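User: My collaborator sent over this chain with a note saying "see what the structure looks like." That's all I know about it. Can you take a look?
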Amino acid sequence: MQINTNIIFVCNNIDEFLETLLPTLPKHFVRIIRNEDSAKDEFLIAHSQIAIKEAYLASNETKYILLCGTSFRKEAQNSLLKILEESPKNIIFIMVTTSKTSLLPTIMSRMSYKYLKTKKTLPDFELDLRKITIKDIYDFLKQNQRISKVETKILIESIFNKATKEKIRFTEKELDTFSNASKLVELNSRPVNILSVILLTILHKRNK
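Assistant: Without extra context I'll predict from the sequence alone. Here is the result:
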């Protein structure tokens, strides 16, 4: 893969994409900048500041600065605007994310863009929603209290799919619970809190 301009890649999984990308880039001229906390994996303004400093370190060879995150804070993106528009000589920025919606239009307009996401089959949710109990919910939340944003989103979709298959019909307000859950994930709400609201909504509906 030949990259000669600033570019955004939207992929299913950042780590898997990097395994494919990195062998195509010169090993000694690559700098990966991302949140080391895998439970968050959010690109913060502190990371953008590191990227800017790295870009101004002179290089005789083309240097690739990889900006990776499942989501990018708005202030972090705003701080990158100028350097993306007027990148120093021999510097190429590569943004890698799993969500196009996390990027500002002003960022998208300054970089090339490739959408590489493919549709994946969601894992079947393990609990029987027609027979779910408070104890089932408690045990499930205990097992999943340290999951990542990506894993939380997958679980939300899996629960909704399972409910649809089990012919559980939701009101408009209950459907909003699922829609808001995905937004709360991006706002860094605790996964256990988000999932508990969804599962308790289903439990309450079943007990009506």
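A starting point for your reply to your collaborator: The mean pLDDT is 90.
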